[in-house]
Amino acid sequence: MVNGAHHRVTEYCGRHCFVACFRLVKVMAYLAVLRGGRVTRILASCSISVPQDLIWHGFVIVNTLGTAFASGGSFTPSTIVNMEPYQMHSRPKTSFLSSPGLYASCAVVMMGAGAAAQQVEYEITVLPQVPDAIYSYATDINNAGQVVGFSSFPWNPYAYRGWIWSEADGLEFLPDPPGEDRLRYAAQAISDTGFIAVDGGGDFGNAWVYKDGVYHMTGTPATPANCVDVNNAGDAVGWYGSAFFGVHLFKYTLAGGFEQLLAPQIGRAYGINNHGIAVANSGADGWRIYPDGTAEIIEGLPSFGSRSPSRITDGGIITGSAGAHDFSAGFYYTDAGGMIEIPWISTWNWAVGVADDGTVAGSSSNSIATWIWHVGDAQVTWLPGLIDPNSGYRLDRVEAINNRGQMVVDAHVDDWQNPDRLIVLTPVDARPYPILGQTGLRRGQETEFVTSGAEPGEEVYFIYSTAGLGEGPCPRQLGGLCLDLLKPVLLGTAVGDANGIARLAVTVPSRAPLGQMVHTQSVIRRGPSGADSVKSEPFYATITD
What distance in Å separates the CA atoms of residue 223 and residue 200, rounded to the nearest whole number? Predict the structure, then answer.
């Protein structure tokens, strides 16, 4: 650090963007304050020797040798300096801290808060602060934009209360579970049909599936349990046990109750899709577990010692994290393409969720590294560069992403001294479109079909077919929009509520053929003569007892 520059730099930490101008191999860096796209003040200059193999795509990786602006723990000791600050590219597979031949006589840091003019791609919705709470966590967001989470309070910091939030209804606490669990319950996931995975939080208490005022105990043994994901049919997965005795995977269904998975192996189940397929970690392996209990290992990259899948989509995309003792990277997996490593931003990287279109959201150990990545991209995109630079929000950690591209994110306001905030990022061009979900098809039982993404008061048509997928009819009333079901039949209609959710309940005939596959789709007529009509992606389920 140039003499006298450290204190001047610290004045601007967290409030401005520091940029470096450089030329290859022998780098002359200038530490400057950027405001409104113009350099307004040169704070320091230095000479940096950079190996040729550490310069690519206009990047310099600068090892700050432990002297990086260590004010409030806001910065990591290693930084990527990029003349295009919001596109993070892949890097060589060496730790920033161990990059050889890199010497710096000053530190250069890039922050997003005072960046040059940029295109805002996400709107910010701020969730209300929970009165009297010590802290609050968001855990999931469904396709209707409903968020669940939990809060802790000063009268008992080890007691949690779960809640649900929507833009129309605001934040509401879930009712207390029965018995002693009323003092400790955390909402961990929410399906499109309104099922919520609830547990004691932090490996305490029982695990539950909740909906419409009713708690279903998952039937786990009387040991601490975590219930971390739930699908549209109310099937949930998680783990039970303790670090001392070992944790075991479980699955719970409303019809069949509790089931231990991969017995007698220990591990954790993290995700389940709407076809009842779960993903889990046991030992060093990631597993895919089918509804009939059969399981298979998810083959990973050879250099990765462990694989921990976090989510699986209805289309079979699996995402999660894999790594060794000194690093981790997010991954994207399909049967057709195998496992793809998501480009690194920092030493530790986590992919926390994936949308049906292949967009992955995640975070990195760098406190300002929240990102998205789409399959086929050569780079990840830094989220702070996609929001209003004058918003004052620092994005700390992405928690979940839905199929509309909305993300729920933990954030800080302006600086680290202010309380944490929870925000929802919504793509600015994401006009609501229908996303279909449904509970299971059981003979003689009621099935609920749910479409999110409708406008309030808008009529939604639900159709089904037993003839399969294909190019269906293109009704004139829909402006020629072609359906994706062969020989479709109208199930019924429903109207979108204040949250844009339309629900239709239909009873499956008691003599419906077992094993029959039924495809469904929802359609909304929009625009003059239906010219702007939209449809959901098809969904399928089989009829069971």
Answer: 11
Buried/exposed 338-376: b ≥16 CB within 10 Å, e otherwise = ebbbbbbbbbbbbbbbbbeebbbbbbbebbbbbbbbebe
pTM comes to 0.75
- At 474-487, the pLDDT tens digits run 999 999 999 999 99
What would the mean pLDDT of 453-457 be, rounded to a whole number? 92
Give percent of the chain above pLDDT 90. Answer: 48
Q: Which two tokens stand for residue 348?
A: 């530790």
Q: Which token pair is 342? A: 């998501």
Highest averaged pLDDT of the listed ranges 26-35, 148-157, 357-366:
357-366
Please provide residue 173's backbone torsions phi and psi, each rounded to the nearest 5 degrees. Answer: -75, 145
Q: Which of 365, 400, 402, 362 is nearest to 382 (CA)?
A: 362
Q: Which of 290, 352, 346 is nearest to 316 (CA)?
A: 290
The answer to whether the CB of 307 falls within 8 A of the CB of 286 is: yes
| pLDDT of residue 99 exceeding 80 | no
Instruction: Provide the mean pLDDT of the chain.
Output: 76
User: For residue 490, what are its two tokens?
Assistant: 């109208």
How does pLDDT run across 386-435, given as a tens digit for each residue?
A: 999 888 888 989 999 999 999 999 998 765 556 678 999 999 987 678 99
H-state helical runs in 233-372:
none
SS3 state at 89: strand
Contacts of 464-472 spanning 24+ positions with Cβ under 8 A: 464/488, 464/489, 464/491, 464/518, 464/519, 464/520, 464/521, 465/489, 465/518, 465/519, 465/520, 466/516, 466/517, 466/518, 466/519, 468/517, 468/519, 469/519, 469/538
Q: Rounded to whole angstroms, how far apart are CA atoms 183 and 204?
A: 11
- The three-state DSSP-derived secondary structure of 460-496 is EEEEEECCCECCCCCCHHHCCCCCCECCCEEEEEEEC
Cβ atoms of residues 304 and 314 within 8 Å: no
pLDDT number for residue 39? 29
Residue showing tokens 């040798």: 65
Confidence of residue 67 (pLDDT cuts 50, 70, 90): very low
Gap between the Cα atoms of 62 and 65, Å rounded: 9
187 and 162 in contact (C-beta within 8 Å)?
yes
Structure tokens at 271: 């995700």
The amino acid sitting at 300 is G
> Is 189 in contact with 211 (CB distance < 8 Å)?
no
CB neighbours (10 Å) of residue 419?
A: 11
Which tokens sit at 498? 């204040």
Assign 530 to helix, strand or coil. helix
Helix, strand or coil, per DSSP, at residue 528: helix
Average pLDDT over residues 488-502: 95
